């Protein structure tokens, strides 16, 4: 009998969080890499040849998802359940501010009085 196809990945994006569910039951945590580059999350899985009922098989996949712009990238998390379901999630920032990306501009406010630093 042919094994059932892997579950389709599910992406859920609601008001307060963004979640990806991915069936990776053929892969162990060491076989998986998850990285965020700018507005994309990349999930890569690869395992070397191993034996199954029909012979030897090796598998590899690459998936890329666009992160919503209001996801807080400093709070992303990724976990692998015992039954092989990878869950990648990040909370969404509620304010109108953009979420923390790799570059942020800090406004410079001008003070009228001199600083209290001792003059050299």
Main attributes?
single chain; 120 residues; mainly beta; 4-stranded antiparallel sheet; 3-stranded antiparallel sheet; 7 strands; 0% helix; 44% strand
What do these coordinates show?
The protein is built from no helices and 7 strands. The chain has 120 residues and is mainly β. The chain has a 4-stranded antiparallel sheet with strand order 1-2-7-6, with no helix packed on it. A 3-stranded antiparallel sheet has the order 3-4-5, with no helix packed on it. It is 0% helix and 44% strand. GO terms for molecular function: metal ion binding; structural constituent of eye lens; unfolded protein binding. It holds the Pfam family HSP20. Keywords: Acetylation, Chaperone, Cytoplasm, Eye lens protein, Metal-binding, Nucleus, Phosphoprotein, Zinc.
Largest sheet: 4 strands, antiparallel
Order of helices and strands: EEEEEEE
Could you give the count of β-strands?
A: 7
Strand order of the largest sheet: 1-2-7-6
Tally of helical runs: 0
Q: Beta-strand level of the residues, as a percent range?
A: 35-45%
| Low-pLDDT windows of residues | none
Shape: elongated
| Helix fraction by DSSP (H/I, runs of at least 4) | under 10%
- The helix/strand class is mainly beta
Radius of gyration: 22 Å
**Mean pLDDT across all amino acids:** 83
First-residue to last-residue Cα separation: 83 Å
Write the layout of secondary structure elements.
Blueprint: E1 10-13, E2 17-23, E3 32-37, E4 40-52, E5 55-66, E6 77-80, E7 85-91
Family: Belongs to the small heat shock protein (HSP20) family.
Subcellular location: Cytoplasm; Nucleus
Region (Disordered): 90-120
